[in-house]
Amino acid sequence: MIVTKPTPIQDRTPLRFGEHIFTFGQEVVELQDSSALMQAGDFPELHRRMEEDGYLFIRGFHPREKAERAALRTLQAIDEQGGIKPGTTVEEGIAAKDGQSYAFFRDVAVAHSPEVLDVVDGPHTFAFYQQYFGGPALTFDKRWLRAMGRGGNNFFHYDSVYVGRGTCNRVTMWSALTDIGLENGPLVLCLGSHRHQKMIQTYGQTDADRDLVDAVFSKDPHEMVHKFGFKLATAHFEPGDVLIFGLFMLHSSVPNLSDRYRISIDTRYQLASEPKDERFFGEGGNWLGNFYNKGATYTPMAELRARWGLE
What we know:
This protein is of the alpha+beta class.
């Protein structure tokens, strides 16, 4: 496997995150690449790094050509819905208008297309997770395939609040399907948040659907850095690069500042022998998912954080 690597991000490089600007070498650092460990098959060291750092960043985990085919399949679906700018090619991935994003979570024709599943369900993927977990692995039927347009982003959260039922020995894999530089809305981790015991024992134990609580911990990157003391970590992602992390890693994404769709997919993996989160299994998009309590009132996160002493 040949892994290409973008130029390292230099100290003092700015990261524009909404109305805030952070600086590499100060509030934000570049993710540490673990691709050499994967190539060497050094799973003990991968486990040690996951325990210590809370994540694995693996460049070239998926063959680039497979990731690009999955992105093209997604863009073709967007084009069918009029989401590609007239006069441009589908391959360029230019949005027809600002603020336009697409989620294909239940659109199995796209999210479960052969091009997409060849990436996230490919033999290379399950071979890795069988070795990582030490036994046969499974993944959710739901795949979080997204195309973020200009301004599109997510907010800081633990995955435990959304997908935490069953085993806690479960990981998220975020796969970049397009080139995602600092201006295209990269994923961002809060380093050390997987060791923040108070946050884990309060916010991390909630279940958005069972407890009827707001699932987003914060929309403010400034407080993540200056109130909670986390360093942010991100990178310039290329098609096929992945981030793997557990249920208790705070993460978000930077708003996309470009006119090009930023395409990624989130998938979850665990030992097949351990308890599943049954909300995310079902044929043809027929799974329960999150936020199924229609008409329910959800407790605001501000109220919960005050109760927990995390305001």
